[in-house]
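Why this split exists: single-chain examples teach little about how molecules sit against one another. For that reason, every record in the complexes split bundles all components of an assembly together and asks for one structure covering all of them. Below is a record exactly as it appears in the raw files.
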Amino acid sequence: MTFPISRRDALKATTCGLGYLAFADLCAQQAQADYRSPLAPKSPHHEPKAKNFIFLHMRGGPSHMETFEYKPKLNSMDGQPAKSKKRKLVGTRWNWSQRGESGLWVSDLVKHQAQHADDLCVLSGMHTDIANHTPAMLYLHTGSFAFTRPSMGAWMMYGLGTENQNLPGFISISPPLINGGTKNYGSAFLPAVYQGTAVGDIKTPVKNARIGNIANPRLSANLQRKQLDLVQSLNERVAQQDPADSQIDGVIESYELAFRMQSELPEVMDLSQETQSTLEMYGIGDKKPSDNFGRQCLLARRMVESGVRYVELCDEFWDQHGGLKKGHAARAAATDQGIGALLTDLKQRGLLKDTLVLWGGEFGRTPDTARKDLDGRDHNANGYTMWMAGGGVKGGTQYGATDELGYAAVEGRTHTHDLHATILHLMGLDHTQLTYRYAGRDFRLTDVHGRVIDEVIA
Amino acid sequence: MRSRNFFNQSIVVMLILIGCATTRSDADQPSQAQLDFFEKKIRPVLVQQCYECHSEKSDELGGGLRVDLREGLIVGGESGPAIVPKNADESVLIEALEYETYEMPPDKKLPENIIADFRKWIQMGAPDPRDGKMEMAEHGDESPAQQTTELWSLQPVQNPQPPQVNSNWPRHDIDKFVFRKLQQHQLEPVSDADPLDLLRRLSFDLVGLPPTLEQQDQFLKAYDRDPRQAIAHFTDEMLASPQFGERWGRHWLDVVRYAESTGNSRDVLMPDAWRYRDYVIDSFNADIPYDRFVTEQIAGDLLSAENPAEQDRLSIATGMLAIGSKSLNGGNLALDIPDDQIDVIGKSMLGLTVSCARCHDHKFDPIPTADYYGLVGIFRSTKTYYGGGTRRPKDDLEKAKDALPLGKDADKKLAQLRAHEKEVNELTKKQTNLNKEIKTLTKKLPKDWKEQLAAIKTKLETIESTSKEEDASTSPREQLDEKEQKQLAQMEKLVSAQEQVQQLNAELKKLRQEQLPEIEFALAVQDDKKIMDYPIQIRGEKNKAGEIVPRGFLSCVSVENVPEITDQESGRRELAQWITQPDHPLTPRVAVNRVWQHLFGKGIVETVDNFGVNGLPPSHPELLDYLAHRFVHHHKWSLKSLIRELVLTRTYQLSSDYHAQNDTIDPANTYLWRMSRRRLEAEPFRDAILAVSGQLDLNRPEASLVTKVGEGEVGRGIKTEYLTEPFPHRSVYLPILRGIVPEFLKLFDLPEPSNPQGDRDTTNVPSQSLFLMNSPFVLEQSDATATRLIAASSNNDERIELVYRLCFTRSPTPDEVQVAREFIADLQPQMAKNDDEKQSAEQAAWSSLVQALFASAEFRFLP
């Protein structure tokens, strides 16, 4: 059995005192090996299918009947009375066709994603408990809406740590301020180190988003290093007084990490290093509707490539109670190209096999409307679609289905808890074993529920 | 303080696994790490894989073996003992799991790693907390109450006599308890703390601020004369200072999940929550006895008050029950609010997670669902003025529905508002009717009716002037033709209506400008009009009502005088009486343990919010009882008196020096052989920076920055810029919105304000370092400190001396002076080179030095 030796032991074993310079050397060369940060990579419960996770969060509830679940019966009944007398059925306004070798039905609304049909594992039996945005969004992110619980990303950090210690392991790009806000990437009662780092917010174009306090406005790197050396020599004095106190090790370590992060994080976020053709592939360009989300997608690839474990992207509201045609078209124009490019790019770089990508919203939409113009759909928590790609899922498959009109999941029913269980499973974690003791009991992301959907695992 | 060092924990586990455990002297007693191993790795597998056939609940007990009790495994079933502790190879259980003799579980062999866990566990000696006798359990009574009647925290508080100790080390009886434990574990207390270290410790612990230069000078002088006198004197000064309540009030705010917005799904602001915050601070300063403090917060509105101001104070106290996080969108407020109220009382005052029993009998603690709904009845008979939902109140009258108006003439003011509103409504109604009439009349009349009216009037005048003598019996009007007469009447009506509208407009305008009485509001509770018992909600779901249970308290706690709840009041008064009974086993223990935790770094019971089965047992059980008993009977529930006594013990005044041998025996310092080095929480850390820079304003700010923002909701158009404006006041007054916690507090581990949490995390993460290296706040405060240093002296060494004393409460060593000098000499010319700022190179260099001190561990860790 290997037995990691802490700096504390090393110091205890050393008879001669270590000067600061010697210590700084030790720090730079061995700190990572000696001091185990709570974010250091940890062994998963079982062999993981995926190492990284990207969630393409389509906030507001995209319609399954406009995207990935073909409903010919519904389309043929367009305008006819619905179950409720006050409402009428709405057929889709887009053309559909079967794609790729798998022959998955995908609509023209998401034609870039359609090109990846053979990599998509479409979950059409999704359902959740509540059809209001905020609680449903919290449910999707934390497995609970009535109580403050850790987010899925925080659980993943807690269970797996992260590969690149110079970058945050869990990043949420452009998160919304409402709909639960920070709780969607918070750590609740898990230690705060596991919470997500926000890059900008939904109201700030990604182009202008910054991570807080990442640069010193006044000192050059050289001068700041000198200042940091002074800080570390002060810290070392305390550490030497008390070889037993690993907290000081933690402080010393976190300054070195922060210093490295200062150079690495802005580099990852700097898209100017990408070629023009890459930018174009992602739909990035002034005034293009796809610019903002395209940047998010490209950032996601760069982050995953650099070893960020969990990246979440967020789009504006897919919440078209009215103006469905225009609204969904606008959302697709903003997101589809970037998503298609991301899948292409991940694949050509060999990253897709290790990266689990999830697409979807907090719920879906109804097959009917109360509007006379038939141009709208309302919230539907009883049946909707999400898709997964990469990281160990069966591509070119559709698992589950709603009834022939699209009201409710009837086959392959997959609850939010099941989705969480499956994602954790693919990442190498057993959702029943990933527990944290708080207030006298063991909590988990899936509470007492959740089933790993074996049917979708390759 | 909860250190999040997983590495150390895993070392502990490993040590145990390789059989060289040193932390416990009593080998038969399983350690916490061992029990954790059981809870994490073993129990869940037993429950999921084996209980179906091998537990009390099994329809038919397989092979006569029960695995839901420790005894069950050891006594075994038809095939003999299932386990032989410390001998996995001889254990039938392992054979069965390995599918060697038996094949268990029958469906599928368990994965290798789980079987390996079982081997390890048996090798450890099969630590297993599941007490209980086979015979007893076979009666089928499976309520946790049976299993946990022996729970230590529910036993009566004893009044243990201090042990006889053959040493002059102890100064106080408390030290005797500590000393005996040290002796038992072959530990030697380290030396007493240096006077300046002790001063720094006392100052931060009591008021959360670093000692000023004057305090340092005075203390050292007094210490030379008489150390004990000096310490006692400084302690009394700090206890009497208004900063004491700001420090200790914040500790309480942690356990009552204080915040100024509803959090959760829709984060609606609560601009009146700050009154409760100030109430808490004032209560600590006034040293309101803890039993009274608890009573005021649960039932202040039901207590008698001598004057209206006192009445308001008592109402504000109940804000504790109203400021919780709530789900305003998709929740079930009628039951969620009582749940939050029961949860906060349970955790903060009783150290129990009562609200687990909302959906089922508590899994671990002896709290049946019926007890929970007995408490729900109390809070369903209570109206909670929680501040309102997502719709902003349009005026004070509307606000008064969900917030409690304060002041002795609040009713009068409300009546005035109502009268005013009525008047406005009446006038507006009249106005509307008149406007309708005007519209109808205008439609009937020709467009040029004004000209026509003028014409008719001229005509009338002509008639009048020409017909004076002729016919006095007919008026001039009658001489108009019929159509003209009708039109004239309509036109005149219209004119009159218009005049009336104008008059009404004027009146309304005046009314609207009228100075209306301003009403102040608080979040609070009051008894509801309807007092009721409440039915059990099956599985905690609404509309699934079971049996109605009478309002009451926890049946697992026995006190001599159980107050009786009447149908005249909600029962909150009686609940408070019950909690504060002098013989309550939990309340005083939980309270003294929290105070101990804040002074010594961790509680005698480390799980400060959980005294239940899953909490940790006390490290010094007799001492805890001694303190709890003394708190009630000697200190009469006075927190200041308790704190004073604790800081005057020799144990508190130990240095934090390292001691190699002690560290091998008791690395966690459980037995207090030294003072543990503690990290400052976010608030004293920030306050200390402001104090050093000279920017700290000790005046209490008016209300809260949240009040400035007003009613509204996070993320929906509120003016958040108010929340981040420069704030020179103490950090306890910073705005706490559940969705937007101030950056400094959030980065440095303010607990999630939706959950009661008495034990803060102490994380070390790069985002904290980045904040200290680069944030505008730290740079500004460093600049201000540099200005202060430069103004104080032109001599570099004097400046260095000054900044060390301000930051670290000590003088620098000659080496440190040298390093600092060189740092300035090195940086200053380089600052001059890229000096594109207003400040001079000299100031920039000093600012960088100060910043390094702020960023250092010594600034943040108490000796």
